[in-house]
Amino acid sequence: MSFRKVVRQSKFRHVFGQPVKTDQCYDDIRVSRVTWDSTFCAVNPSFVAIIVEASGGGAFLVLPLHKTGRIDKSYPTVCGHTGPVLDIDWCPHNDHVIASGSEDCTVMVWQIPENGLSQPLTEPVVVLEGHSKRVGIVTWHPTARNVLLSAGCDNVVLIWNVGTAEELYRLDGLHPDLIYSVSWSRDGSLFCTACKDKSVRVIDPRRGTVVAEKERAHEGARPMRAIFLADGKIFTTGFSRMSERQLALWDTENLEEPMGLQELDSSNGALLPFYDPDTSVVYVCGKGDSSIRYFEITEEPPYIHFLNTFTSKEPQRGMGWMPKRGLDVNKCEIARFYKLHERKCEPIIMTVPRKSDLFQDDLYPDTAGPEAAMEAEEWVAGRTAGPVLVSLRQAYVPSKQRDLKVNRRTLLHDSRATTGATTGATTPPPTPPAAPASARFSAPPVLGSGSATGGRLDEVLQEVAALRALVAEQGQRISRLEEQLSRLENGHV
What we know:
The chain is mainly beta and 493 residues long. The protein is 12% helix and 34% strand. The chain contains three helices and 32 strands. The strands form eight sheets. Strands 1, 2, 6, 28, 29 and 30 form a six-stranded mixed sheet that branches. Strands 3-4-5-7 form a four-stranded antiparallel sheet, with no helix packed on it. A hairpin with a 5-residue loop joins strand 4 (47-52) and strand 5. Helix 2 packs antiparallel against helix 3.
């Protein structure tokens, strides 16, 4: 009689999070206190950007990833906005270009120098003016170069060509209330929005139409968020009528009922979802929480599978998310977060434990690279293309093979001792002449016959035999432990 396995098989079951050491954090940063449900942090393989407190306007820090430790209060910032900065986003096709939205109703695009800032940056490359109220969301098109979306508290979505500073599309009749979040689809042909009217909408920006809409996706009045998954489904976070936090998965072909719905807890912080399309893992971070939950999205019911929770002591004010091409593939790192505390930024590394030192193809399929699939004009003309994929194999560095270590002195000593003990019984060697002082330390000792030499040889041989027995015993113990670990990983207890 066969029994169904109780534990679901998944290569991400044992993913664990680990904060870096204190000296690898970014300390003494005055994180923004503005009341807005943004991540307050944006990361790419070169820089980390953090929205900070600023007097007389809005500002954000841009730090090279390697500049860890205490950040001086006089460190230069990007400070061209006249109101607090609400959202920032790095361009996926240029690691030195970042966009920011602010309470001053403008969107600004900045060019960061190669080695970071040496003086305050006040002059943006482009200023985009078109919103009548504060701009709370900025997000770049995933595949078209220089296409930027912005959403403001005027309930208007604008799509810009940053290269020419022109407004491509203005979508101003589709949302009756405040827009909480915007997420592009994988190929950038559609985007989905979560609105204060409790509806989730799928919008075709080039036609200016709502393709699909789900009213009352979450019954609660608190903010909700929606993100597109790689296969076209939509993942949402929100609140129930009883103010319990929820996760839901929706099929855009049929939005009547969710494919999966899970209730988490009754905390009141907005849930920020981060999605990895390569592994189909969603990480959920609550504002004000001290934990990161992660779930695997699959094709079989219940579709949303809880994996684990990373828990720490301090609550998070915001969270940054490193793109896949910025991770350390040698350490089987599948995600890296940049957690904002009140006065510091702490990287948290998510790792899949693997015994092999080889490149892990199943963890690192080809991922979206920094090259744009098309120009803005091509996208406006109606072309659609997925991201240009790159392999992470070239980022893998094989671990240095262990050198064969031979203790030459011991071998030479033992072989000469054996020879001396054999020949010394018949013909005693002549007494060597006195060597000069410089040679006494480099020449090997000449061993003669005698009971002292024989006794020393027996001691060495006994010690070698004991060490061999100890090594064999430890080898058997390692084999047993590896077998137990293998059974645990495969779900056999």
